[in-house]
Amino acid sequence: MASTISTPATPAYTVEHTPFPAPSKTITGYANNTLTTVTRMSFTDRLLLTISQGERSFSHWIHVPLASASSSENVNPMGRNTNYSHSDLDEDDGDTDLLPRSDLTATTLLGGTKREDEMVGQTLATMIGSAVLMKRPREERLLVLGLGLQRVGEMGRQGFEEVVGLVLDCL
């Protein structure tokens, strides 16, 4: 009986080991007296941000389309209507620069079953979307935000601003 020896065929492809293909950045700091981690991953079609505190799982997912806002002709990057003349704007009112853009719409994808958590999450998402468009006015990717925040109802303004500050450092 004749035996045949077969040699393994050379694969038609080559496997290259490369790092994760999406650029990412992680920042850790304290917000609302709680250790908070913010992670950003930049994909070609979306910008994914996650904010977690402690061992909390991501219980609220929100998205904000930035493409329609970046192409808006009536709103400048600060969110003000450009049809106003300079004299119509109150020059002493610097607080309006901190408001989220009015042309951004945050929509809950998952979670957000508590009304106060949903309001905080959507406000945070539009603030982050506004900051992204301020930094990169032509940004058209979808912003997806995952939240795992503790004691959202007790956060208060200072805690909210601390979370926003960590996010801005991560952008």
From TrEMBL:
Q: Where is the composition biased (Polar residues)?
A: 71-86
Question: Lineage of the native species?
Answer: Eukaryota, Fungi, Dikarya, Ascomycota, Pezizomycotina
This protein's name: Proteasome assembly chaperone 3
User: InterPro entries this protein is in?
Assistant: Psm_Assembly_Chaperone
| Annotated spans, Disordered | 71-101
